[in-house]
Please model this.
Amino acid sequence: MSMKEAKPRLTESQASELISRLFGLTVTKIHPLPSYDDQNFHVVVSEEGQYVLKIMNAVLSQNQDLYELQTHAMAFLHQHGLPAQTALPTLTGSLMSLENIDCGFGSQKYLVRLLTYLPGTTISKIPCSPQMLYQVGRMAATMDTILQKMEHPKLSALQQENFLWNLGNVHLLEPYLPTVEGENVKQIVKDVIKMFKTEVLVNMNSFRKCINHGDFNDLNILVEPEGLSGHRISGILDFGDMSSGYYVFELAIAIMYMMIESQTPLEMGGPMLAGWESVFPLNEAERDALYVLVLARFCQSLVLAQHSVTLYPEDEDYLMITSRKGKGHLLRLWKMGKEAVLTKWFEDAREYTDKK
Model:
């Protein structure tokens, strides 16, 4: 089955029927939300509640252990005071249900969950002050330290050796390089992969292991106004890329995505690094790898987005949101070089911490 055929494409009436049958709720308003390989709906019910209906694609729905873990992780973070969604039980008490649905390619099985709706707007829509960036870095580190304490009989499901979005698998992008447009960009991606192999892959035994959210980006962080001009983090969304990894992976991913919408992207790293290290200081090997890991995430975003466009050309605008802007940032960071970028980030982090 191709990923194109696996992606759920329910109508609003189909989604409403699911909610009524599985959860006993009456939908009054429903509209689709952006999604990558899955399908999401924002739902308002007559019982005075708001939820997010998530339908996983037919291929990934076969890995129920993984989604059981993701659902457990969200509840675990929520129990420890972090603003994560939780799943509403079905009428039979299950936190997810495997449903036979026909979306135009014949009847297929899709995992369905109804998650709590969190208030706020995505952090991508606000200008990020150094204080906000500090919060993001601190939240990312706090999240990973809490997840590392999580126990579950199926934790081994997070060991996804060939998962393309795991930051430890950047070298697995090589078969997808023909989809990259522009010979200059393609060569830089090749060079980053080579740098990853020679400077990061061989030193990963020096990194501290943890469970990564894996997609702590500017569209998965919600914020609400606080005080006269500030904001606070009000939601952490989308645990679909959660996997076993390393603490420094989470930081690199977060820095990369917070650079996307910024007019001064190089200024993002310092305050976020300060926030991160207020919870979990990096060791020498992790510090040395940070530049390459940020570049590697830009490469993952670019290559996998362009590959996805070949599968879903009708979704190109959404799929290319990050990589279109990220391409310029990748080129700029590559031109500056490792020493200059790391020097700036760590000096900025030190200055921010000294001012606090």
